[in-house]
Amino acid sequence: MIRYRRLFLLPLDTLFVCASYCLAYLIRFDGTIPPEARHVFWTGLIASLCIKPAAFVLAGFYRRLWRYASIPELILVVKTVFISCLASSLVTVIMVHFHGYSRSIITMDWMFLNAFIFGRSLFWRVGREYYHQARKNMGIATIIVGAGHAGRMLLQEIRHNDSMNYKIIGLLDDDPAKIKAKILGVPILGKLEAMPQIVKKCKIEQIIIALPSASSALIRHILKLSRECELQVKTLPALSNLLEQDPLTQQIRDVNIEDLLGRDPVKLNTENIKQFLVGKTVLVTGAGGSIGSEICRQIAIYQPARIILFENAETPLYQIELELNNKYPAIPVTAVIGDIRYQDRVNAVFSKFLPEVVFHAAAYKHVPMMEYNPAEAVNNNVLGTMIVAKAADAVNTRHFIMISTDKAVNPVNTMGATKRAAEMYVQMLAQQSKTKFITVRFGNVLGSNGSVIPLFKEQIQHGGPVTITHPEVIRYFMTIPEATQLVLQAATMGKGGEIFLLDMGEPVRIVELAEDLIRLSGFQPHEDIKITYTGLRPGEKLYEELLLAGEGILNTNHEKIHIARSIAQNSDALTERLEVLFLYAREMKIEKVIAALQEIVPEFKPDHRLLPYSPNIIKLAEVRRIS
Q1: Could you tell me which of 264, 294, 263, 313 has the C-alpha nearest to residue 476?
Q2: How large is the C-alpha radius of gyration of the chain?
Q3: Domains in the chain and their CATH numbers?
Q4: Strand pairing of 140-145 and 166-172?
């Protein structure tokens, strides 16, 4: 439709060229062109019809949406019309040998042609405004919260988007100076606190929150008012997630749990990250996982020479490879099926590609599952890390970044203990290697595979109940993009041996998280959707920590990144204990695996009341389940 409209404009503008030129001559000669001037008239008309439409095409008139015309389009029209009028006049003068051409024709022709072209754009815009005015009584009665730049842009797009079924009644804003003013003819009805009265008076059905930089407290307050008024609520993404290339109307979405957790936008030193990654060969283990795949996406922004995706699971590996190839076709992406526990495979990959930067995100992370499979947790999280780290050291990789977890601090579960043992090995290797080995430790990420958010959503979809282990459980959360961006930033700071801690913000009670999700799904917690408590699972704590006793904390030049003071590792003793641990894991001597982990990680306090570490009990449970 738009293409046909543009094709219609060229013949219309050609008609305007003819009309403006004829009108200039008729006014110049008081309505009658004398015989002696007719040869010049026809010469000039032919020159105008040949030159001016061609100039309009070359200037890009018909590649622009004139319904959004503004100052740049105005300047373009004035310049193009002036140049084309001057060019056609010069051609005419040359063809008539400088005889009988009136100079006033140029000025009047330019003025009339400008008026015609501006007039057709103005006519089109006025017509659309009348059309949208006629549609005013159609659609969902909606108010926009926020009369700033985002609110104005959103209003403009909604008014000009025929597919948007919104009838914008007005806007709300807490700035007293804006009250009773109008934006694009739509009134600012009042402050946020006046929402109940305005909703009742104007029969509002829906609100759209156009406050991309709003705090979580403000979003919660707006949601509370909206629930009291029984309104549907939509929002724009946070400022850090707004897509500049996409229209705002395409970014309107439901409020989600991330909006309520109040994570401020991450401020990155992108120049440092670019220098760290540009032109480098980067290898990511666990590239198909939640964190690994997002690390790959973030890395690709900074134009590395190559990205090596190392992953054991075929389907996730295929998906991230396809995504990167489609979005960043200029960056070579190599997908490698491999297991970090297989030393020969890992060494072969490192020897072939010689990665300069390694992000080690591969790990088993499900706490209760690792309680029942401690030998595999050791083999993957500790032995796998050792194999990858040694391979990086052997090929003189410049930087090795290990992704760790807050569960490695004073662990009560096998997963946390294995991650702490891996941290200790990486710190030990940093003392003797040219490679800069660093660790980045953070808590839970929203929406990652196996996290509570997808589980709660599934339970809500099935009508509940939502299951929580304990009413007092609290956790730290951050979004996957935030975590991975801070990992990249921390990587640029590492000198070797550090454990970087990411600022996780305020801890969140899981029961409150569940209640918010239930409300966002349109239900009332404890009424429409029940919440039940199942008791702590094997290896779970009520709360998580980010520091070990004796580590202390150092600040960096980034407000959300800190450094734990290094605890020196005895190389010989640690190596010997790890060998014993791996021996017991190979032999599946579960009790001895746990004891060996306690030797390596003294702060590891497994709760044997939660899980008897006996392979016989596991086998018995399997037999009963099969029968």
Answers
A1: 263
A2: 34
A3: 2-132 (no CATH), 135-255 (3.40.50.720), 270-443+479-503+551-600 (3.40.50.720)
A4: parallel
How do 306-311 and 531-533 pair as beta strands?
Answer: unpaired
CB 307 within 8 A of CB 282: yes
Low-confidence ranges of the chain (pLDDT < 70): 1-7, 62-73, 98-101, 124-138, 160-164, 237-251, 253-268, 445-451, 476, 504-505, 537-552, 559, 565-568, 607-627
Which residues, 6+ apart, have CB-to-CB distance to 426 below 8 Å? 385, 389, 400, 402, 437, 438, 439
Two tokens at 201? Answer: 């008076």
CA dihedral 52, 58, 64, 66 (to 10 degrees): -10
Sheet holding 232-235, edge to edge: 182-183, 186-190, 166-172, 140-145, 206-209, 232-235, 253-254
Q: Which helix (H) or strand (E) segment is 232 a member of?
A: strand 232-235
Q: How far is CA 479 from CA 240, 439, 503, 517, 616, in A?
A: 12, 19, 12, 16, 40
For the chain, the 3-state helix, strand and coil shares in percent, each to the nearest 5, are 50, 15, 35
pLDDT tens digits for range 159-204: 766 666 788 888 888 888 888 888 877 888 888 888 888 888 888 8
Give the E-state strand segments of 302-460 in sequence order. 306-311, 333-337, 357-360, 399-405, 436-442, 444-446
Respond yes or no: is residue 457 known to be catalytic.
no
pLDDT in tens, 326-339: 999 999 999 999 99
Number of helices (H), then strands (E), in the chain:
22, 22
Q: Of 533, 517, 534, 509, which is closest to residue 461 (Cα–Cα)?
A: 517
Residue 418's closest CA among 367, 381, 443?
Answer: 381
Bridge partners of residue 143, in order along the sequence: 170, 207
Q: What is the Cα–Cα distance from 547 to 563, expressed in whole angstroms? A: 10
For residue 63, give both structure tokens. Answer: 């590649």
How many Å apart are CA 101 and CA 108, to the nearest integer? Answer: 13
Task: Please give the C-alpha separations between residue 226 and each of 115, 230, 378, 490, in angstroms, as whole numbers.
Answer: 49, 6, 50, 40
Q: How far apart are CA 259 and CA 240, in angstroms?
A: 12
Whole-angstrom CA distances from 411 to 1, 38, 402, 421, 542 are 63, 98, 18, 11, 12
* 3-state SS class at 275: helix
- Look at residues 304, 252, 296 and name the one whose alpha carbon lies nearest to residue 275: 304
Residue 397 has which token pair? 């990789």
Prior bond to 329 cis, omega within 30? no
Please report where in the chains the tokens 């992406």 appear, as a residue.
Answer: 333
Is the CB of residue 518 less than 8 Å from the CB of residue 529?
yes
Which H helix or E strand runs over 121? Answer: helix 104-134
Residue pointed to by tokens 């000039």: 44
The average confidence (pLDDT) of the chain is 80
Sorted by sequence, the CB contacts under 8 Å of residue 119 that are 6+ apart come out as: none
Per-residue pLDDT tens digits for 540-593: 666 665 554 445 677 777 767 878 766 667 788 999 999 999 999 999 999 899
Read off the pTM. Answer: 0.65
Structure tokens at 370: 């690792």
> Which among 52, 365, 407, 541 is annotated as catalytic?
407
Element (H, E) at 372: helix 367-372
